[in-house]
Amino acid sequence: MHRCFTYFAAASAVCVGPAARSADWYTGAVVPAERDAWIVAVDASTTLSSQGSQFAGATVTAAPQDSLLVSGPRVRLDGLIGSYRAEGGNGRNALGEQAEIAAMAGYAWVMPEAVLSGFVGLNVRRNELSQFDGSLPTDSVRVGLKTALDYYARPTAFTMLHATGTYSTAFGAYYGRVRAGVASVAGGFLGPEFAVLGDAYYRQWRAGIHLSGMQLGAVQLGLSAGYLHDHARKGGAYTTLDLRTGF
């Protein structure tokens, strides 16, 4: 399980230059401006919170026939590790750990100002708690069917919208994240984000602000922070680092 709404506006008049030159951060889509003809994209993300939860994940997306700039079939590999505080069987907080790997195939529709990708495949997911809880599944490892959708759009030259989501039948695991942004004076895009994630063991949602699409050499960088709430330890703060590169 991956691996959140206050709106900030940037002064568009001063952002025209940076917006035209900035790269966009998203997962599994294609940068409309100054695009690299990648055949493989690597996306990684790490989230830390004041609640004692931490998650790290990576996604590799490949175009087996052409580049990621062209509509066509896609292959996707996901990996995830994480730990969190959850409710144990005695009502006290327990330490939970999870890990997942997934392999999926799908298709991407590349449009002039947007990209829509869909995937389906299999995943193996492990969940463990440090304390026994009879209300939770007795098996700690399951194989399931996993699906994923990703949509990235540039409605205008100075705005972006990104939505991504996954669902697996293994422990009913789900993840969703939506971000919108306007061109920032710092480069990239600044705006609100919202995310939800959970499974049979743990549930959390996040609302915050992201600054994404900043270019650092061959790597695209994104940062976000805000408020989160989980079912065990309630409210807290989180911060997320996103990285993207390709070849």
Q: What is the topology?
A:
Layout: H1 12-21, E1 40-49, E2 54-62, E3 72-87, E4 93-110, E5 114-129, E6 141-153, E7 159-168, E8 174-183, E9 189-198, E10 203-216, E11 219-230, E12 234-246
Give a written overview of the molecule.
- The structure is a single chain.
- The longest helix has 10 residues.
- This protein has a single domain, classed as monomeric porin ompg (Porin), CATH 2.40.160.40.
- With 247 residues, it is mainly beta.
- It has 1 helix and 12 strands.
Give a short overview.
The chain is mainly β. It is 4% helix and 61% strand. Mean pLDDT is 83; it is low at 1-34.
Name some characteristics of this structure.
12 strands, 1 helix, twelve-stranded antiparallel beta barrel, mainly beta, single chain, Porin, 247 residues
Strand content: over 45%
Question: What would you call the structural class?
Answer: mainly beta
What share of the residues lie within helices? under 10%
What is the CATH class name?
Mainly Beta
CATH architecture: Beta Barrel
Distance between the termini: 27 Å
Total domain units = 1
Output mean pLDDT. 83
**Poorly predicted ranges:** 1-34
Strand order of the largest sheet: 1-2-3-4-5-6-7-8-9-10-11-12
What's the total helix number? 1
* SSE topology string: HEEEEEEEEEEEE
- Tell me how many strands there are: 12
Characterize the main sheet.
12 strands, antiparallel, barrel
Q: CATH superfamily, please? A: monomeric porin ompg
Shape: globular
Whole-number radius of gyration? Answer: 18 Å
- CATH fold category name: Porin
